[in-house]
TrEMBL record:
This is Amidase. It comes from Antarcticimicrobium sediminis. The lineage of its organism: Bacteria, Pseudomonadati, Pseudomonadota, Alphaproteobacteria, Rhodobacterales. Residues 26-457 form the Amidase domain. Belongs to the amidase family. PROSITE patterns: AMIDASES (PS00571). SUPFAM superfamilies: Amidase signature (AS) enzymes.
Length: 485
């Protein structure tokens, strides 16, 4: 059973269940055994609810596209009564929810068998997952000396290691795409408001945050997006309607597209040679597929740095609010939170209401400038990160200066200069596993399209997957398990 399980994506496992070739119980027990075997090296699965999962099978699973497939929730968001959360924080250990979030309900309706939660940095802040709540860092199965990314780092490690074929994640500035890139997976961020946020939030981090999944195959991501797409009751705004489904779009030829590629950041800063190689290789592939491919020349007034600083202010305020909602007026024990969280609270105290509104206006203004970029192209191609996955500890969240951690030299934004751009603009973006470094670390390639053009993006991604499939490379790790340096 283990060998069969490891070779299949979530769609493949669900098809086996539907045909009666395997049972949901068999798949769950295989996932649990793999968790026991592989998680110790990774610290990815941090909360287990085995009996909740077994009871769900006994009660009868929904007949959805993933009926019987083992699944994991991120230890942040996706509130669910049966699955307490730590939110990556010692301050919030075992927090129980009084309701089920809409995104959780829609995912559960696909028939997945959820048996636990995966590691997240404290309150989702940062491109690595090294929260003290879990007793140590979450590691990359391609090389356990490196990070699996963040903030959905536990999800990325669990999927890349073959523990589950797909897992829930969320993305406020790249938190699905960064770990997907770091772990050799697919990570798709849909257009703003394509997926529901309720009932806990109308818009996370001023509209920059959304839920999603990390998967090995594009078809798994497409099917889960189809199951979850659409506003929930009382949503403050909706995404532009789609013409069909993500799965249908995968079957269509994207047509000849105007692709522009960048081998520096959008501010002109050089990138790691492996990231440049990944972009150039993909640019050649797209040209061979018939697309118009040219170098991107960003406008000098695009203002990426100003947007990034505004976003730092928004995240600081959101972090302070999360902590305050737990404390309810009680004093904070500083040992219960990370240095970065303490720094965020201190920085937020300096931000006035007017400053906060100005930050939102800066983000919205940046989104309008990015919309103009896509008048002259259909697709923007970059690497997902500026370097291959960082060594464990390089971005450990023990800084006491929030701006320095995120915006200073050698900071988070130097490491991840692309992903947050599309959270700010609300445009769809995806990372695909198209390159590995000379020392066999994944280097994701990032593609983005205009606001609302999710179908175009997933159609192009499917064309790329057919032309340059990555499943065999993923299996080279999955069949052997995590690799230690």
């Amino acid at each position: 059973m283990k060998d069969t399980y490891l070779k299949q994506d979530a769609t493949g496992l669900a098809a086996m269940v539907a045909k009666g070739e395997v049972t949901p119980d068999e798949l769950l027990e295989t996932a649990l055994a793999l968790t026991e075997d592989r998680n110790q090296a990774l610290n990815a699965v941090v909360m287990r609810h085995d009996e909740v999962a077994r009871q769900a099978i006994r009660d009868g699973l929904p007949k959805g596209p993933f009926s019987g497939v083992p699944f994991l929730l991120k230890d942040l968001g996706a509130e669910a009564r049966a699955y307490p959360t730590n939110n990556g924080s010692r301050l919030m250990l075992g927090t129980k929810s009084a309701y089920d979030s809409e995104i959780f309900l829609r995912m559960q309706a696909t028939g997945v068998v959820t048996y636990g939660r995966t590691a997240s940095p404290e309150l989702g802040v940062g491109p690595v997952t090294e929260a003290q709540a879990y007793g140590g860092p979450t590691r990359n199965p391609w090389n356990t000396g490196h990070t699996s990314g963040g903030s959905s780092g536990g999800a990325g490690a669990a999927v890349a290691a073959g523990i589950v074929p797909m897992a829930h994640g969320s993305d406020g500035g790249g938190s699905v795409r960064i770990p997907a890139s770091s772990c050799g997976l697919v990570g798709f961020k849909p257009t703003r408001a394509r997926l529901p946020d309720g009932p806990a939030a109308g818009e996370g981090w001023a509209g920059m945050a959304t839920d999603g999944v990390l998967s090995r195959s594009l078809r798994d991501t497409a099917a889960m997006l189809d199951a979850c797409t659409g506003p929930d009751l009382g949503a403050p705004y909706w995404a532009p309607p789609m013409q069909g489904t993500h799965l249908q779009a995968m079957q269509r030829d994207p047509g000849k597209l105007r692709v522009r590629y960048a081998t520096t950041t959008l501010s002109g800063v050089p990138l790691h040679p492996e990231c440049v190689a990944a972009v150039e290789k993909t640019a050649r592939l797209l040209a061979d597929l018939g697309h118009e491919v040219e170098a991107f020349r960003p406008a000098p007034d695009l203002g990426v740095e100003a947007m990034m600083l505004a976003w730092t202010q928004i995240v600081a305020c959101g972090t302070a609010l999360s902590v305050q909602s737990v404390l309810k007026g009680a004093p904070l024990d500083p040992t219960k939170v990370e240095g970065v969280t303490r720094a965020a609270i201190a920085y937020a105290a300096q931000i006035s209401g007017a400053d906060y509104l100005a930050a939102i206006e800066e983000v919205h203004g940046f989104g309008r400038r990015m919309a103009h970029v896509f008048l002259d192209c259909d697709v923007l191609l970059t690497p997902t990160l500026a370097t291959p996955p960082a060594p464990v500890g390089k971005y450990k969240p023990d800084f006491e200066d929030f701006v320095a951690y995120r915006n200073g030299p050698g900071s988070v934004f130097d490491y991840s200069p692309f992903t947050a751009i599309f959270n700010a603009s609300g445009q769809p973006a995806v990372t695909l596993p198209l390159h590995w470094s000379a020392d066999d670390l994944p280097v994701g390639v990032h593609l983005a399209t205009a606001f609302g053009e999710d179908e175009r993006l997933i159609s192009l991604s499917a064309q790329i997957e057919r032309a340059a499939p990555w499943a065999a490379k993923q299996l080279s790790l999955i069949e052997g398990g995590p690799r230690t340096p």
